[in-house]
UniProtKB/TrEMBL annotation, chain A:
<dbReference type="GO" id="GO:0016682">
    <property type="term" value="F:oxidoreductase activity, acting on diphenols and related substances as donors, oxygen as acceptor"/>
</dbReference>
<feature type="transmembrane region" description="Helical">
    <location>
        <begin position="208"/>
        <end position="231"/>
    </location>
</feature>
<dbReference type="InterPro" id="IPR003317">
    <property type="entry name" value="Cyt-d_oxidase_su2"/>
</dbReference>
<dbReference type="GO" id="GO:0070069">
    <property type="term" value="C:cytochrome complex"/>
</dbReference>
<keyword id="KW-0812">Transmembrane</keyword>
<feature type="transmembrane region" description="Helical">
    <location>
        <begin position="237"/>
        <end position="256"/>
    </location>
</feature>
<feature type="transmembrane region" description="Helical">
    <location>
        <begin position="119"/>
        <end position="143"/>
    </location>
</feature>
<dbReference type="GO" id="GO:0019646">
    <property type="term" value="P:aerobic electron transport chain"/>
</dbReference>
<comment type="similarity">
    <text>Belongs to the cytochrome ubiquinol oxidase subunit 2 family.</text>
</comment>
From TrEMBL, chain B:
<keyword id="KW-0349">Heme</keyword>
<dbReference type="GO" id="GO:0009055">
    <property type="term" value="F:electron transfer activity"/>
</dbReference>
<keyword id="KW-0813">Transport</keyword>
<feature type="transmembrane region" description="Helical">
    <location>
        <begin position="330"/>
        <end position="354"/>
    </location>
</feature>
<feature type="transmembrane region" description="Helical">
    <location>
        <begin position="104"/>
        <end position="122"/>
    </location>
</feature>
<feature type="transmembrane region" description="Helical">
    <location>
        <begin position="221"/>
        <end position="238"/>
    </location>
</feature>
<dbReference type="InterPro" id="IPR002585">
    <property type="entry name" value="Cyt-d_ubiquinol_oxidase_su_1"/>
</dbReference>
<keyword id="KW-0408">Iron</keyword>
<keyword id="KW-0249">Electron transport</keyword>
Length: 345, 480
């Protein structure tokens, strides 16, 4: 394999940031939609479930597309990682994709259905649950790294079930808890305060807040023990920076809870987004320079052709534009709704 | 013969299945968004309520189709890496980049505006809405362009050099504007427009047959048939152009499409025969049975009576594609193309003689039924066209440079079967659901009652609780 020029090294770094940004936006935006789907499994009233789906009718598609953008960036900027990591993660990705599929059609079909409403409700709820679980599992499995062949282009070698471990199952569960919290906050922000859905989401948020807190602590300790690359960073000479980050995260979590109990629902969502930014950023910094720890660094996995320059020139400018029209979209669909929205469109 | 170990064959089937089930939706998205834009633009310009009703009605069908397209499309993005890991790694510097362009400049672009277009009525202004529709149209066509760049490059991989097992791009312009792309993109884009026009014409004919909303649907019928008078022959011309590119750049693929095994006859003269039907036998390297017209193949490909057309015998057995599927799927596609051209000619004749308006259409029920039937044919043509293209390229994944067997991920047969079974069940459910809800929305018909949304920012209505709590609430639109 050839080494990269300086400019390519810099561009690889920039695209790594862009990749992290897309995943982060996906987690913030679709995390809330997925969590609302998990929440809908516990909602008794058919119209309330319909209203949850209606609340995201105009935005779910764009939210989900951040995942596709992340996929596109990996393929375009880190093709060597894309081709090997996705092969490694075949089974969890397959189930995540099937779940996303059923969830997507449930969102569009339900409003036209009469006899099959119940079926699409289940498709939406279970699809949200399993998409979150398997995506979390894929992330956990990626953190563990995977073996490569010693051929000219290093391919994935290893079985189809290598992704399966106690840690990857745990990260799947963790993802479900985190999404549940995000979904609860989303419901609180989008439903009129007098709705029963709003009330139900209140206790849901409280429970998932403490569960998520516990899950974060467990994941941190587990990572500290099993991942030498993480332990080296966290206990290294810059330990005080990590400690400071920890303190800021605890403060943000506290503010989020406070905002939520005071019914400042939009503010609670923004605090959660802050938390995700801090934790996701912390994770990326911990992993640097690895893209897949122990397997691919950003620079080994980057596009070796002059393509990175082309990619940057061709599409780099679109990302801010995308953020702008996404923002406009949320602005248009910002109003609080009630369960009657199940009929509205 | 192909290197078709069970594992490679299953990988091909896995991918063939998800692509075949995905291509059912994007062509309608691309074509219909163009027609929706034209209809909405006419409404904004003329204020004619019929255009508004048509837009709102076909938009409902559009979003059902769009949802199914997104559902099956997200899989595509990930499936290259999952099923074809080594291919993705090697071709990534070009192919991955192009798909990256597609997600950022088209997929995301479209997803952003489609929500505004469908659910933005009454929330955004009239012009802003038209702008959203315009963007959906533009982005879906852009998406088609990028996808066809990527796929065409697999057919005619120009602009790259293979270094250390990786395709390095040395000329971006050559790679993007590869010879196949020049005809393949217009051919696919026009296919999308033709499909959408027949979709609209078929549905309009169905309403005319039942004498429901005839005044409304005679308009969509008239304009789609007139457009088809130009679109259908253009598609045949583009298809012929693409065929000649294939003949030059991928002679083995062309030979497979035509069941052309022998370059020369046994007496040494050039084999110029074109088979109407045949039963190809790949093992023996000949057709067991064929009905053949002399000179036609040479006429088609070289425009001379006895021009030489390379047969499959000029290629090593390991480099020959299978013949049966490309041969017949190609013929089905061509037959549909010509049939639809005749339907369009006939329709345009009737329209221009004034025989298909709401007063006179009842005397042409036979033609209207043919139109309803014709709405399904473009789907079959797109399927068979893609099968021809993808199977005739075998055994190469990147033509002439990388074999399919070298590009597949080494998975166990068990997980390949699991993939096939899971996606078979889920995507059939999506397909069944999409067409079931198409039928439901069509049977329900357009909404002619609720007031036209004029300026945006209007309350779209409210719900009234029924007196007894058992019944569902009633949705009430305000009437001004």
């Amino acid at each position: 394999m050839q080494s990269l020029s300086t400019i390519q090294n810099e561009l690889s770094f920039i695209w790594w940031i862009a990749l992290g940004l897309s995943f982060m936006l996906y987690i913030i935006l679709d995390g809330a939609d997925l969590g609302a789907g998990i929440f809908s499994l516990f909602v008794q009233d058919e119209d309330e479930r319909g209203a949850i789906m209606a609340s995201m009718a105009g935005t779910w598609d764009a939210n989900e597309t951040w995942l596709v953008v992340a996929g596109g960036i990996i393929f375009g900027s880190f093709p060597l990682v894309y081709g090997s990591a996705f092969h490694y993660l075949m089974i969890p990705l397959m189930f995540a994709l099937l779940s996303i599929m059923i969830r997507a059609v449930a969102l569009e079909f339900r409003v036209h259905s009469s006899a099959s409403k119940r079926f699409w409700d289940w498709g939406f709820g279970l699809g949200s649950l399993s998409a979150t679980f398997f995506a979390g599992m894929a992330l956990g499995a990626a953190l563990k790294g995977f073996p490569l062949s010693h051929t000219m282009v290093p391919n994935y070698v290893g079985g189809d079930l290598r992704f399966l471990s106690a840690f990857s199952i745990w990260t799947g569960v963790g993802a479900v808890v985190a999404a549940s919290l995000a979904g609860g906050l989303y419901i609180r922000a989008r439903f009129e305060r007098r709705c029963s859905t709003y009330q139900q989401a209140g206790s849901w948020v409280a429970a998932n807040f403490y569960l998520a807190l516990a899950a974060v602590v467990v994941t941190l300790i587990w990572s500290l023990i099993t991942f030498p690359w993480a332990a080296a960073k966290w206990t290294g000479p810059y330990a005080w920076v990590w400690l400071l980050l920890g303190v800021v995260i605890v403060y943000a979590a506290f503010k989020m809870r406070l905002a939520s109990t005071r019914q400042n629902d939009m503010r609670a969502m923004l605090w959660l987004a802050t938390l995700i930014v801090l934790m996701w950023g912390g994770m990326m910094a911990t992993m640097y320079p690895w893209l897949v720890p122990g397997t691919w660094t950003i620079y080994d996995g980057a596009n070796p052709s002059n393509s990175l320059v082309a990619f940057t020139l061709a599409v780099g400018g679109f990302i801010p534009v995308m953020l702008m029209y996404n923002w406009y979209q949320f602005w248009v669909f910002r109003a609080r709704i009630n369960k009657m929205a199940a009929y509205a469109h | 013969m192909l290197e078709n170990s069970l594992s490679v064959l299953l990988s091909r089937l896995d991918f063939a299945w998800i692509t075949s089930m995905h291509i059912l939706y994007p062509p309608l998205t691309i074509g219909l968004s163009l027609l929706l834009f034209i209809a909405e633009w006419r409404w904004v310009r003329t204020g004619d309520e019929h255009w508004y009703r048509l837009t709102r009605f076909f938009e409902k069908l559009f979003i059902i189709n769009f949802g199914a397209g997104v559902a099956t499309g997200v899989t595509m993005e990930m499936a290259f890496g999952i099923l074809y890991g080594p291919f993705s790694q090697a071709a990534g510097p070009f192919f991955g980049n192009i798909l990256g362009y597609e997600t950022i400049t088209a997929f995301m672009y479209e997803a952003g505006f489609v929500g505004l277009m469908i659910f933005g009525w009454g929330k955004i202004g009239k012009r802003m809405h038209l702008f959203a529709t315009f963007n959906v149209m533009l982005s879906s066509s852009l998406s088609a362009m990028w996808i066809l760049v990527a796929n065409s490059w697999m057919q005619t991989p120009t602009g790259v050099t293979l270094q250390h097992g990786i395709f390095m791009v040395h000329n971006w312009v050559e790679a993007i504007l590869n010879p196949d792309f020049i005809f393949a993109f217009p051919h696919m884009w026009i296919a999308a427009v033709e499909l959408a026009l027949f979709f609209v014409a078929g549905i309009s004919a169905w309403f005319m047959l039942r004498n429901r909303n005839s005044a409304l649907f005679q308009r969509s019928l008239k304009y789609s048939l007139i457009a088809l008078l130009f679109v259908t022959p253009l598609q045949i011309y583009l298809g012929d152009g693409l065929g000649r590119v294939v003949a030059q750049a991928q002679p083995a693929a062309l030979a497979a499409m035509e069941g052309h095994y022998h370059t020369y006859n046994s007496n040494g003269s050039v084999n110029s025969g074109w088979h109407i039907i045949a039963w190809p036998n790949d093992t023996a390297g000949k057709n067991d049975f064929a009905i053949t017209l002399p000179h036609v193949l040479s006429l088609l490909e070289t425009h001379t009576l006895n021009g030489k057309v390379t047969g499959l015998d000029q290629f090593k057995p390991a480099d020959r594609p299978p013949v049966l599927l490309p041969f017949y799927s190609f013929r089905v596609m061509v037959a549909i193309g010509f049939f639809l051209f005749i339907v369009a000619l006939w329709g345009a004749y009737l329209i221009l003689r004034g025989r298909l308006d709401s007063q006179t259409a009842h005397s042409h029920r036979g033609y209207l039924r043919i139109l309803v039937f014709s709405a399904f044919l473009p789907y079959a043509a797109i399927w068979t066209g893609w099968w021809t293209r993808e199977i005739a390229r075998q055994p190469w994944v990147v033509y002439g440079l990388m074999k399919t067997s070298a590009g597949v991920s080494k998975m166990s047969v068990g997980s390949e079967i699991l993939w096939l079974v899971c996606f078979a069940v889920f995507e059939l459910l999506v397909w069944g659901g999409a067409w079931y809800f198409f039928a439901k929305v069509i049977r329900k018909g357009p909404d002619m009652e609720s007031p036209v949304i004029e300026g945006g920012h209007e309350p779209l209505g409210h719900l009234e609780r029924p007196s007894d709590d058992q019944a569902h609430p009633e949705y009430v639109r305000p009437v001004y």
